[in-house]
Amino acid sequence: MSDRLKSLADAGVSIWLDDLSRERIETGNLADLVRERSVTGVTTNPTIFASALAEGERYDEQVRRLVAEGADVDRAIFELTTEDVRNACDVMQQVADETEADGRVSIEVEPGLARDTEGTLAQARQLWQAVDRRNCYVKVPATQEGLPAITGAIAEGISVNVTLIFSLERYRAVMDAYLTGLEQARDAGLDVSQITSVASFFVSRVDSEVDKRLDAIGTDEAAALKGKAAIANARLAYAAFQEVFSSDRWRVLEEAGAKPQRPLWASTGVKDPAYPDTLYVTELVVAGTVNTMPEKTMAAFADHGEVEGDRVTGRAAEAQEVMDRLAAVGVDFDDVLVVLEEEGVSKFDASWAELVETVEGQLAQAREAGA
Length: 371
Prior knowledge:
Its main location: cytoplasm. This is Transaldolase. It comes from Nocardioides perillae. It is a single chain. With 371 residues, the protein is α/β, with parallel strands linked by helices. It has a single domain (3-202, 237-310, 338-364), classed as Alpha-Beta Barrel (TIM Barrel). The chain contains 18 helices and eight strands. Strands 1-2-3-4-5-6-7-8 form an eight-stranded parallel barrel, surrounded by ten helices. Helix 15 (279-282) links the parallel strand 7 (262-266) and strand 8. The termini are far apart.
């Protein structure tokens, strides 16, 4: 086992792999990562599935069967992806049994539903039922329309990974949606101890957008702030998490057995090569959080990452100072957040289109081979 990753896990950070493929599952690679690299969860997205489907032959038999059954592309995507997530959940089951909220595998609601509350909730139900594993998470975007879908899913006992969170205001709304869902579940007689959630707060994309604006401003003061916005934003988010999950409202739910919605640091692969490749891991170490990493970031941390203690708790004032300095040099952070959410939804749509194109190609090949 990597001592560096074990040190990260020992510091209370749950290490989740941001990748999944049938190859990983069937070769035992995922189980090896659990055993050797302290991996305790998995996140996925349509691009990850498209990449997995495009490589190797492990999906061929199922694709041929789907063609024989007359499946269209939407059904094929649903069947292929839920099969992988179900099997990954089985690999992670022991971790789920041994921990309160780890051992989870996330599957995403179709991005085209990001602005459709009822459509999101309906597909969340379908995915939850199809995977049929308690250690599954359904990923729901934190758009304005996604918020009531989060509440509805939690109220029905569906565990949710809330994704695409950039702003503190939206994060607070996400936490409120979770608590409201728990209250409704409790009032309906559900066992709230069996419902869990994470809130995926995106990190590196914030620096990408802010740094671009700082470069355009071009002053020394602006240059000195590069690479600081994302971590500051995340630290302020953690302070909001501490506030909400120490409130009287939360204590009532906690006494009923509810578990907190853990912050998950997402988009932690460094996009600017000028920054340390473990930046968004080392600087966001705090117990009770999740860091979901691409394998490249995980390998980098295993090789040379350092755990320098809790880098988040009690640093809200310092983080707010960074935000104040950004405003002073002319960065409109509210506009940054609007752009990031719009881009995030667009990227999710593009990711889905890539998956559709890949699966259509696989189905066409199978039809030709069977003709």
